[in-house]
Amino acid sequence: MEGVVNGVLFLQIKVVPGSCHHTATIHAIGVREATQNRGMASSLLMHAIDVALSHCMRAMISPELCPSYPAAGSCVEFCLARGPCLHTWDVLLLLSNHGWVVRKHGQSQSQNCDMSASDIRKHRAEGAPPVATALRVRGPLVSLDAPLLYPGVASGRGLFKTTLELPAAPSRKRGRDRWDCSYEINSAIRRGTFPLSQLSATYPMPGTGLLPFTAPLLECQKFQCYLEDWRRHSYEVHVDAEGQHVYKHGFHLTSDHGSTSGKPLLLGYQEYSTLNGKHNPALQSARTLKTFSRKSIDDLIHQVPGCAGILMSAMARLGHGDLSLEEVTRMVQHVHMLLLDSTSQVDFGWHEDTYDLSIQDGVRNTMLSIIVQLSATFTTAMQLHGFAYHEYGGQGSGIIFHGRAVHRSVPRIRVPPHHAVWKVAFFVDARRLHVDKRQAAGTSACAPLVSL
Fold first, then answer.
1. 3-state helix, strand, coil in the chain (%, to 5)
2. Are 350 and 404 in a shared domain?
């Protein structure tokens, strides 16, 4: 156990030829509470489950068959080997938070019960080791041809699309449309001809098409705490002229005395249905916030704790840490707050940000999307079309990418019940980062130098 730190060390996958039932056994796993709170161990556990599912799917499908037809009844069962894995309550707490069942056996049938996360914490505080308690740990049984444990995912194969399995670019028979240009952006990123900033010669990573960075943890914690103060949130429901319910979610600034302002700083939205799960207007409104004016953007960046620090860390990663906060603020066109949980209302399907935000054509090719995970509850993931998917590393994990590139959220197998993750998205007009230095002094609005 001494050599096991922060997650899964040894995972054994058993695929039985001719059978639809496969097993994945974790032989060694280690976690400490502080690490778990930062999401690192959770990330490694979820990655181990993803690897097991991916391996079993590829092994059970013969090359001559279409990968969209797994055998009926195919499933993967996850197990925890007896031994060192059961020597610490932290491991059991991690598994419990990810849907594993930890069952305590008593002297009689009536004393048998499933342990909750609070029960595990209580036993850990008492100091008795888990081996002193009669426990049985059962992992999830995940179907590969039926709905998974995450809303909106039709089957396990939906989590593991390779470049060749992704849908082809739309047909051009009816002329060019927005998707033609967006797919060309993705192709340019793959070729390495499309920088995020020409002035600093900053390019995305070739494997994912993204530029990862780490935002200051303290700034993320400040931002998250400010968002999680529900006294700052207001909710209203009314019926419009057509008899439809309209849900209004507002977020307000607070004064030094703790009172909230009358006019909201941010508003929720309820009509975005490009989701991996089923769209619910009321739930979506309660889990989203966005800026709606130039003033709301300025007030958010300058008055909400942590917001400016996160934004400036992203600009430093792009190679433009010399810009002032005022200069960067003027480049921000939109800011969104997203609360990701098991309702799947911010679990977005394939889309591109510039079209959804109605960005002007002259700006779309240089619009950058900056996403940062503010919470440490569990890990999230996303994917650019044609690239490997990227998993956020936990609290403070951020990415920068071209807003016109086609991308999606990657649905996870299971989101822990009653848990949620706050994320912030900045959408930045980066035209000045693509202007030749000799021309920068003359104008900041000249045409972007983009090679597709």
1. 30, 25, 45
2. yes
Q: How much is the pLDDT for 53?
A: 67
pTM, two decimal places: 0.64
- The tokens of 116 are what? 């909750």
Closest alpha carbon to 287 in 345, 371, 347, 336: 345
pLDDT range class, residue 158, cuts 50, 70, 90: very low
Q: How far apart are CA 133 and CA 103, in angstroms?
A: 10
Nearest to 280 by CA among 269, 289, 290: 269
Going along 99-244, which residue ranges are E strands? 101-104, 113-114, 135-138, 141-143, 211-214, 233-239
445 located within any domain? no
Number of C-beta neighbours around residue 332 at 10 A: 19
Mean predicted confidence (pLDDT) in 90-95: 81
> Would residue 383 count as lying in a domain?
yes
CA-CA distance, 398 to 166, in Å (whole number)? 25
419-443 CB burial, b ≥16 within 10 A, e <16: ebbbbbbbbbbbbbbbbeeeeeeee
Same structural domain, 208 and 345: yes
Higher pLDDT, residue 452 or 255 = 255
- Per the structure, the count of domains in the chain is 2
The pLDDT, as a whole number, for residue 124 is 85
Task: Specify whether 122 is located in the same domain as 265.
Answer: no
Domain that holds residue 136: 7-146
CA angle, 289 then 293 then 294, to 5° = 120
DSSP 156: G
Predicted confidence (pLDDT) at residue 154 exceeds the cutoff of 60 = no
Let me know whether 191 and 338 are in one domain. Answer: yes
pLDDT digits (tens, 9 = 90+) for 385-432: 877 778 888 899 999 999 999 888 876 655 666 788 999 999 999 999
Pair of tokens at residue 62: 């013969």
Q: Please give the pLDDT value at position 203.
A: 94
Residue at token pair 């704790």: 305
Q: Are residues 100 and 26 in the same domain?
A: yes
State how far the Cα of 215 lies from the Cα of 44, in Å rounded to an integer. 20
**What is the CATH classification number for the domain harbouring 380?**
2.60.120
Burial of 364 (0-12, 13-18, 19+ CB in 10 A): buried
User: Which of 106, 129, 146 is the endpoint of a domain?
Assistant: 146
Antiparallel, parallel or unpaired: β 332-340 and 421-429: antiparallel
Is 80 exceeded by the pLDDT of residue 144? no
- Entry field: residues in the chain: 452
